[in-house]
Specification:
Elements lengths: L2 H4 L5 H13 L3 H13 L3 E2 H8 L3 H13 L3 E6 L2 E6 L1 H5 L4 H6 L17 E2 L5 H24 L30 H5 L8 H4 L6 E5 L5 H10 L4 E6 L2 H14 L4 E5 L12 E7 L8 H11 E14 L5 H11 L6 E2 H11 L2 E12 L2 E9 L13
């Protein structure tokens, strides 16, 4: 830098850009996060960052948002989980305060962020955007599994030893001898909600996240010709598989709906029983799912679902690692958290019974509850 250049300040645009960088780092926690990610040298999930800086998840997420806005932090999506990493080029070209104050050589203009890999996305803490991202990843993942099943393959949803008895799937259904093999191959659950649903002839049942249709087909047989079994799924590939399985099985009292479990496309108070098999844990808005389930149940209606829950007391980092191994969770709830959300939605008679150990502090469980009131018969709902 020559003497003439030393006598003039940075141009306004460059100074303004540097100012945003300094403001982003003008917080001890954000400096800790940047330092942690830079020194670790590999992506970290929120649970790992929370455990390292000893702050709450919402606080850490807010700081990540600030760092993302100036390009210091990027995110990689792995299935339904997000991992955070340093944008190393941005950090390398960031001058120190001493360089600027003392007139030492600095970049003439702030360096552009490096070209992102296709799987990377800017960090967001907006709840709606985050939920949409998780939902899209889940749909893409299970659509691929549906195509595998349609092609005659057997999709795998978790590591072979993720549960003490392996991935439950079809093994949890000893009564499924008369359903199509494709429905059995596409069974990706962590239990058997029908074992506790106590379905009765003439009832209307709804399966949240019906996948290949196994639970819907079995439910249809239990409620009989006078009853109806609905299956709701967000994946068009899964719906195609389910409808093909229903046609092969010759079951007529089934209806498969396209939609999201956070926004069930059915009228209020029309369902007698809601079942679900290891699906609610995939949602980024579990409170909304339970509220929607409560809405569509008739007074006196019942909830009987299988899901994965977390032990009390395990760290967020341990929980995140176990979730990645099991492969079917998006922020696992503890039994107490599950109970609180169900109660807040209006459910009563809530019981949560663990069934198998999934390892790492996670367990499969049966969750049962009811909507208060006395059943009043209605015609079948029209979606």
């Amino acid at each position: 830098m020559n003497d003439e250049a030393r006598s003039w300040p940075l141009d306004r645009a460059t100074a303004a850009e540097y100012a945003t960088w300094f403001r982003a780092l003008a917080d001890a926690t954000r400096i800790q996060i940047v330092s942690l990610l830079a020194r670790r040298g590999e992506p970290m999930n929120v649970g790992q960052i929370v455990a390292a800086v000893h702050l709450g998840q919402s606080t850490v997420s807010a700081h990540l948002k600030v760092l993302a806005e100036v390009g210091f932090v990027l995110a990689e999506h792995r299935g339904t989980a997000s991992y955070y990493l340093i944008n190393d080029i941005c950090v390398r070209c960031f001058p120190t305060a001493a360089d600027i104050v003392m007139g030492r050589p600095v970049p003439a203009q702030p360096c552009p962020a490096r070209q992102r890999r296709p799987e990377e996305r800017p960090v967001t803490t907006d709840p709606a955007a985050r939920a949409d991202g998780i939902r899209d990843a889940v749909i893409s993942r299970y659509s691929g599994m549906a195509r595998t099943a349609l092609a005659g393959g057997t999709p795998i949803d978790c590591e072979p030893d993720a549960f003490t008895a392996g991935c439950f799937g079809a093994a949890a259904y000893p009564e499924a001898a008369h359903v199509p093999n494709a429905a059995l191959r596409a069974s990706l659950g962590c239990g058997n909600p029908l074992a506790v649903a106590d379905l009765r002839p003439g009832e209307t049942v709804l399966d949240l996240g019906s996948g290949g249709g196994l639970d819907v087909l079995l439910s249809a047989r239990r409620v009989g010709p006078a009853g109806t079994a609905y299956g709701l799924d967000a994946s068009t590939d899964m719906l195609a598989l389910a409808r093909a399985n229903a046609a092969q099985a010759g079951v007529a009292n089934v209806r498969f709906l396209h939609g999201h479990i956070e926004d069930i496309p059915l009228p209020d108070g029309q369902i007698d029983v809601i079942i679900s098999n290891c699906v609610i844990n995939l949602s980024a808005d579990k409170a909304r799912v339970l509220s929607e389930a409560f809405r569509v149940l008739r007074p006196g209606g019942r909830l009987g679902i299988s899901d994965v829950i977390a032990d009390e007391g395990i760290s967020l980092r341990q929980r995140a690692e176990a979730e990645q191994r099991v492969g079917c969770t998006s922020g696992t709830l503890t039994a107490a958290e599950y109970r609180d959300l169900a109660a807040a939605a209006g459910f009563t008679g809530i019981s949560i019974t663990t069934t198998h150990d999934a390892g790492g502090g996670l367990r499969s469980a049966i969750i049962q509850a009811a909507r208060p009131g006395t059943r009043v018969d209605h015609a079948d709902p029209e979606p």
